[in-house]
From TrEMBL:
Its cofactor is pyridoxal 5'-phosphate. This is Tritium exchange subunit. One of its GO terms (biological process) is glycine biosynthetic process, by transamination of glyoxylate. Belongs to the class-V pyridoxal-phosphate-dependent aminotransferase family. Substrate binds at residue 335. Residues 24-326 form the Aminotransferase class V domain. Keywords: Aminotransferase, Pyridoxal phosphate, Transferase. GO terms for molecular function: alanine-glyoxylate transaminase activity; L-serine-pyruvate transaminase activity. PANTHER family: ALANINE--GLYOXYLATE AMINOTRANSFERASE, AMINOTRANSFERASE CLASS V. InterPro entries: Aminotrans_V_dom, Aminotrans_V_PyrdxlP_BS, PyrdxlP-dep_Trfase, PyrdxlP-dep_Trfase_major, PyrdxlP-dep_Trfase_small, SP_NH2Trfase/AEP_transaminase. Soluble hydrogenase catalyzes both production and consumption of hydrogen from suitable artificial electron donors or acceptors. This subunit catalyzes the tritium-exchange activity. The modification N6-(pyridoxal phosphate)lysine is found at residue 191. Pfam families: Aminotran_5.
Amino acid sequence: MTFQQQLRIPGPSPLPERVIRAAAKPMIDHRGPEFAELLADVTAGLKRVFETDNDLVMLTSSGSGGLESAVANLVSPGDKVVCCVCGNFGERFAGLADAFGCRVARLEAEWGQPIDPDDLSHVLSANPDAGVVFITHNETSTALTNNLPALSRVVREHGRLSVVDGVSSIASMPIEVDALGLDVAVSASQKGWMAAPGVAFVSISQRAWEFQSRARSPRYYFDWAEAKKQLVAGSTPFTPAISVIYGLQEGILMLEEEGLANVYARHRRLATATAAGLAELGFGLFAAEGYRSATVTGAVAMTGLDVAAFRTLLRERYGLVIAGGQGKMTGKMVRVGHLGFVNDGDVVQGLWAMENALDELDIAPADGRALAAAARHLAGEPAGAAV
Ligand SMILES: *Cc1c(COP(=O)(O)O)cnc(C)c1O
């Protein structure tokens, strides 16, 4: 027997039937009128979700290509930059800046802890020559959401340029690019947008364009100026992932049919329920209280649990696919994704599978307590606060 797989990793996320069908449309000319219309419609939709009037370009790449484009377009070799690092994706930003020859001032927090706005203020004061600050909004590796309003306020007060990795947050939690004054924000199709991987999006403020015109890093495929020039003409510099963009158009339609406020409340509710269930099973919630992510829940395994064997059992017997730890947390924790096309019943199903798998592995009896804990937070309850 084969299962309908329950994909509960923090991206790629499950595809709704509607998105699959939309992505199966016949191919079109990416220099023709149909594509110009598609591009204009999707770009406008992305801007509504980003809550920005800034320019926004789509790049044909995974999310990391969007991050790389920010480095390539904003810095010159030898520039000092500040990278906020509290997990694997913060490391990626620092690694990119390093690869482009930047002098990187790292502001680090323990894994599972958020970046402290006061610490950021000190680092910026100590590095007056650092023009660009790289911030991970939702650190997917530790399942933690940083306090973006506070961090971006510090960056603004110090007159620096903010670059925000919102790959696993935008479309699933509020971002308010313009209200927060974020100069550059990046997301990607395969996370909360409910589309397949392959397209990254980058919003670019007027001030970021000023940095862009001065920066001397080598860039060609990811040149924002070229992307904007073509966007105005209704196309893209290179052949785009047209099928992914069709899927994305449907994903945005679904987000707006549900209403963004409802989408955000649903993600918070699922996160609260998942955290309650995992804690009841004996896992230790990893991210600091008050900073737990709405899109992914990370939890440290209890003594005696072989995480790799647990995940294999879940996949093979229950059709449930969850993620393990990354970097230094490999083998030590599980990460359960609940972003995009995921609802209350999916969370119940996932916890049911985990409870039974733990029983099979002789860790704890399956007595329904994780389901009961989760159910207290699910349908009918108002959107919960962060657990
Ligand atoms: C998924 C993700 C990315 C992008 O990863 P890709 O595999 O390149 O799409 C970047 N940042 C965060 C926080 C992510 O969760």
